């Protein structure tokens, strides 16, 4: 297994080390037999959007070039296999409610790879709740009741738990009444219902929403949460199931490799990793790509999957339209901190907790058992009281131990805020940003298409499902336009 230059690994014996092993690393890093040829399509980015697009174009007979700045596939979703256990650095959980994901799991015969993250059969079967109001442990039934109560108050803008105002999460603006909440922040929504929230409920809903947004209550849009809620059928337990319960036994990189390997087997895929793109010029008919190391590639069409927070790092000619430039300059708010910890006590497997607002990590959950019998826990922080886990490992260990006494044998994580190809985690918009810029971000510019989970249509935008959807749609457009006899194929 190759070692990625990305990610961090710490044990008491080794200290902090940069770079972690992953099956997502591609060797050889470049496979281009005829680099001077005009490709049918170039795909920038090998996350799930780019992998889906490259697979669908190459398997349909189009000569496809996949360019990726990293040494691996997966983008903001990748796993590291250490001592027989997959540690998910980014996107992790999936669900059969997410149609594009489940179709692909079915396509690759991977439905039996779904495993349950939670296990309430061990000794430490409780939820730790540490807030400004005090510290205590409660049962998971009490935890679910508290959070469901708080979240339902938060989303109940219409007296019908959001069902009336957003009846179709894949067409969020179907009821124009929802636009009344377009500029509302999470903090403003909580202020609206503050009279009806107990101290526990307020801490619960703020912690839960910050887990989702990775931002602050002031800069996180309420509308994004309402869409997640609607996509999960207006039910707290279903929302939990879709965002933090079901994961893949093989790790997400095991899933992503299926896309890449199918594309490669078509014989129509060329690729180059460790190849950041510097410039895209579509002013002369063909699209000319210039990489940071000076390589030039030509194609009839281009699918750009660069995330919103790094879109402005690429020079475009003609320039991006004004709305795209404004959105790229504003950036989305998600600066999630995600840290994996192996805890010696196997009885911690049934534990979860919240420490908010004083701690730099907000939520922790026991998520698995390693082959060595230790409890694997995953912890999340956000832009509020933000930290860089790699800068001070003692601070990181201290933030984990705020949840309770734990003997920690290993930490594994990726710093998404410092990631040059992401500058943040999954998308969460600022108040007003979605309505103002979403359609502009989706809009193509000549032969250049923009596809990414950050602006995918529908309820599961910002999820793996949204990435696959966006890649599918972009590839379909390119295939239709380049099929023999189509108008654009003759241009």
Automatic annotation (TrEMBL):
Amine oxidase domain ranges (all copies): 49-475
UniProt-annotated binding residues for FAD: 49, 277
EC number: 1.4.3.-
UniProt KW 4Fe-4S keyword: no
SUPFAM superfamilies: FAD/NAD(P)-binding domain
Keywords: FAD, Flavoprotein, Oxidoreductase
Name of the top EC class for this enzyme: oxidoreductase
GO molecular function, one term: monoamine oxidase activity
Keyword Transcription regulation: no
Record Pfam families: Amino_oxidase
Catalytic activity: a secondary aliphatic amine + O2 + H2O = a primary amine + an aldehyde + H2O2
Cofactor list: FAD
Family, similarity comment: Belongs to the flavin monoamine oxidase family.
Protein name in the entry: Amine oxidase
Source organism of the structure: Cladophialophora immunda
